[in-house]
Fold:
Amino acid sequence: MKTLSDADILYGIRHRDNDVLEYIYKRFFPSVHKIVKERGGDEHDARDLFQDAVVILFKNIRNGKIRIKGSFPAYFLVMCRFLWYEARDADPSTRETLLDQLGESQLESLAETPADTEEKRSAIRNDFDLRKEKIYQKHYRYLTTDCKKVLTMFYRKRGYEHIAHKMGYSSAGYARRKKYLCWRHLLKRIKDDKEFKRMVKEKRGEDL
Structure:
């Protein structure tokens, strides 16, 4: 597959070039799918996310709202990660507003990381939100199988009646209680994590 430059990609998005859009899909969808799977989503969710990201990119590029000064792959994948982790439950207009706000700080800085691949990866790893997500995933793996299933269904917006039926619980009320206990246990593990405590101190220092 021929490699397109960032300029070629942005031009193709702006002009709705089908060949460029197909290139973006083939090159980046596997990474977007991985992002979605990490938080309990499936291929259908990944396709929806990918489409939303491209539509938002198209609108913002046409309106002159974004100026990607660095790496398009870094910008696009961090944008997808943000949309999935932080803004997926918001309505479309709110998601775009949140993304606009992020674009002025974190997305812009991540997109401007040095060309060296390892430095780029390091910059993304050190980003506060991505570090927080890594901690979440670390402790999520230690939950019981039942807790993982309950929280995954909850993240997918399944109702408590549905969760109770799938898990064989006696009532929706019990499913709600189970979700609460699982989430509280996960939250406690995260709050007790040394790296998380260090991040909280860093964040407080930035806000002073």
User: Anything to note?
Assistant: The chain has two domains: 6-126, 135-207. Residues 128 and 199 are 7 Å apart (CA to CA). The two ends are 49 Å apart (CA to CA). Residues 18-37 form the longest helix (20 residues).
